[in-house]
From TrEMBL:
It comes from the Eukaryota. SUPFAM superfamilies: TPR-like. It comes from Triparma laevis f. inornata. PANTHER family: AAA+ ATPASE DOMAIN-CONTAINING PROTEIN-RELATED (PTHR46082:SF6), ATP/GTP-BINDING PROTEIN-RELATED (PTHR46082). The keyword Oxidoreductase does not apply. This is Kinesin light chain. Keywords: TPR repeat.
Amino acid sequence: MWPTSLRNLSELASGNVFNEYFQKQFNGNEEDFQRAKEGYEEQLGRDNEKALDAAFFLITSTEITRDERIEKLRDLLKRCERALGEKNAVTFETLNLLGIKMDESGEYEEAIEYYERALKGSERTLRKNHPSMLTSVMNIAVVYKIQKDYGKAEELYQRALEGYEAQLGKDHKSTMRCPENYLNCLNVGGNSARLAELRKAHPNAHNYDV
């Protein structure tokens, strides 16, 4: 029996961590990922949501070059948009991962474009302050910070922080990651007043260079 869900965008945002259920089901084996994809395609059709989801995880788990991975992700994105639309989770997961790959390569404008499309889709689909949506907000903030557009980055970090605190609580690990990155942005951006406020509100957060 195939798993009913393979997705976890919050974990995928790290770039290297995949859905635990999927790993347990298929033991992280490329052949098992391929078998899952082929099984879904045979039973449900090539562009069925589950088949596309399995294709997404096969792309992320296979040992291929960066350029090959990006090409496959772009092809998958076209299929997702055609079959599922931009409001579907598989579509904005693919957009988000393409953003990550562009970000890693220093192609920041393209990264922001993909991240913003992912955010737009998740805002239409998920509940307010869903962790997956907030991940996209954080990703965009990181890129703006790298580009030294500190004003935009700070606004997005603040939005993400408020969302995480409302949804997960102040002490959740995902919430804690946000002020850590936010502190660094405020520090390098020279916003000393807000930096002092945030340090007081989150004394256990560290100022990481992210």
